[in-house]
Amino acid sequence: MTQQFGHDLLVPVNPTDHVRGDPHARVTLVEYGDFECPMCRSAEPAVRMLLDTHPAAVRLVFRHLPMESAHPHALIAAEAAEAAGAQGKFWEMHDLLLKQGAHLDRSALDKYAAVLDLDLASFQASLDDEIYRQRVREQIDGALRSHVRGTPGFFVNGHIQDVSAGMNDLRQAVMRFL
Questions:
Q1: Where are the domains of the chain?
Q2: Do the bridges between strand 18-21 and strand 153-156 make them parallel or antiparallel, or are there none, so unpaired?
Q3: What is the CATH number of domain 23-175?
Q4: In 3D, which of 69, 82, 61 has the Cα closest to residue 17?
Q5: CB-CB contact of 97 with 111 (8 Å)
């Protein structure tokens, strides 16, 4: 993703977002991600390190931006994360999907739901009926309106952050607020 100066997050963090970390943190990272994206997988350890190093000061909001033209399983993986979230296990599914990355077809998603001890009938019905597709599409729209053109797309306290040169740029942006 390339930086586009002056672009801010146009969809504020809201109660329906998935948040990891202290709700009163000084720094809010918003990540638009794609579970099938290799760059998102490689960014995850750096994001986790920021959260672990500054647990009271940094929180993460994850939103979906499946790059469907490049990643054929990204949309259903996003829906699977939402279906797991409905059962209180969004972050567990998030972590598992990023870890598995290349294995995100429907049968794999069903296996991950079983590993997480989800109600399989409910999980499968959610995917079959595309219950969470609209939510994912709304997050895609929010990303595009906020000028995110690739994944991972990051905002630090509402301001877009270029990570094309590496995750150290994200760390430096976060440190400016600490």
A1: 23-175
A2: unpaired
A3: 3.40.30.10
A4: 61
A5: no
Q: pLDDT 10s per residue in the chain (178 long)? A: 434 445 799 999 999 999 999 999 999 999 999 999 999 999 999 999 999 999 999 999 999 999 999 999 999 999 999 999 999 999 999 999 999 877 999 999 999 999 999 999 999 999 999 999 999 999 999 999 999 989 999 999 999 999 989 999 999 999 999 9
| Alpha carbon 98 to chain centroid, angstroms | 10
Q: How many residues does the chain have?
A: 178
CB of 98 closer than 8 Å to CB of 81: no
CA dihedral 173, 146, 5, 14 (to 10 degrees): -40
